[in-house]
Amino acid sequence: MLHLLSLKALRERLQKREVSSVELTKHFIDRIAKFSDLNAFISVDEEGALASAEDADKSLTKNESGNLTGIPIAHKDIFCTKRLRTTCGSKMLSGFTAPYDATVVQRLANAGCVTIGKTNMDEFAMGSSNETSFFGNVKNPWQTSRVPGGSSGGSAASVAARLIPAATGTDTGGSIRQPAAFCGLTGLKPSYGRVSRYGMIAFASSLDQGGPLTRSAEDSAIMFNAMGGFDPKDSTSIERPIPSVNELLDLDLRGLRLGLPTEFFDSSVDTAVLGSVREALQILEKRGAQLVDVSLPNSAAGIPCYYVIAPAEASSNLSRFDGVRFGHRSEQADSLLDLYECSRAEGFGEEVKRRILIGTYVLSAGYYDAYYLKAQKIRRVISDDFKKAFEKCDVIVGPTTPSTAFKIGEKTQDPVSMYLNDIFTNTVNLAGLPSLSMPVGLDGSGLPIGMQLIGRFMDETSLIGTAHQFQLETDWHERCPEDFA
């Protein structure tokens, strides 16, 4: 039952030589093949993974191992890898293999991780359900008729189904935390600039941030410590040391002030979600935390603000995919202009096209001031709301999502309804703050419920530490979908 063990437990087994990295890697490769119907993976590198596992075993034999030596992981298929193709879940890049590894990939490899494969995702990270992928939708292992969340749905589903111990994801407006909530995982979105974006294919450059999807806060601390830190190759990277694993976990909750925004606890949230969040807050209170009321009065403006800024940046970032330099090239073109038009029409899916059109519109002459500039002003107001709230509290707490996982196909014809799934998460990206989602219960249908913690800029310690103290008292993070135990 190796797949049920945490990163810490697997590390202990490997260091005691109770299991080899090759055996462990084979175990997870077999599980990925067994549960391929989840469609959680786009690419699996069996040969490369086993070769890396053999190297890890040699390091373990020489006692040259680190926290993650020999442990298999997977990367969201938005991180460039020189051994495996990087598709971004799109036809546009379905045949692209990068000539280099992303910094996150390289750092985790340096920490001894064995990369098994690349996980499925919403096309170019645009989506909240993992239904926009060119490679088909991912299924939620808790109920396969439900979505796993997006855009990091493949990473979330693979960890929840115990196909892999941990995986990387990216979060632009909630794309780590929302799938973590839907799949019963701990998902960390670090502060903007904490994790290098070098080699992470850009969706919205001022919002994107990489982070880990794991089962527990302890596992998140181990992954974050390995993948974070300053990178001179990333101009947005911040030169601040990453705390040690022990520093991230060792938090005394006595006197910690938890802020409850009135805007996060209204009638729009499912009653089961609110009930589980309130029960979780009671547990944290018993550990010494104090509950205080705060307000984020402009949080309702987060959705329209986000869906002006993110598409605007996406339209600029995706302009490079023109059928000439790299990516899909149409064979129907008769001229250079035809080549651009046909390649992009064939290579991009409907949701990506929708966001490119929106972004191009809000940046166009005559509309820039009315939309994009105004959205940037609202972004500053939203950031100021958080600063005022943190004068009264240390961590802001609320539901991660308004509901549990919805059915596949339920919201595909209603983009606005789909966008509203990120109503509690995207303001965090607009402000550049760290945030974490952790499992706090199950609804009446047996679907996971997530609670979100939001911290001050660069204060991941309070989030991981709070989640860890909660998980010492509960076992929601240890729950596994019945068919995958």
Task: Please describe the topology of this protein.
Layout: H1 7-15, H2 21-34, E1 41-44, H3 46-61, E2 72-76, H4 103-110, E3 114-119, H5 153-160, E4 167-171, H6 177-183, E5 186-189, E6 209-214, H7 217-227, H8 245-249, E7 257-261, H9 271-286, E8 290-294, H10 302-317, H11 336-347, H12 350-363, H13 368-389, E9 395-399, H14 415-419, H15 426-431, E10 435-442, E11 448-455, H16 460-473
Parallel strand pairs: 2-3, 7-8, 7-9
Antiparallel strand pairs: 1-3, 4-6, 5-6, 5-10, 9-11, 10-11
Helix pairs in contact: 2-3, 7-16, 10-12, 10-13
Question: Can you give a write-up of this model?
Answer:
With 485 residues, the chain is of the alpha/beta class. 38% of the residues lie in helices and 13% in strands. It has an 8-stranded mixed β-sheet with strand order 4-6-5-10-11-9-7-8. Strand 10 and strand 11 form a beta hairpin. The longest helix is centred in the C-terminal third of the chain and has 22 residues. The radius of gyration is 21 Å and the shape is globular. The protein starts with 6 loop residues before the first helix and ends in a 12-residue tail after the last helix. The mean pLDDT is 96.
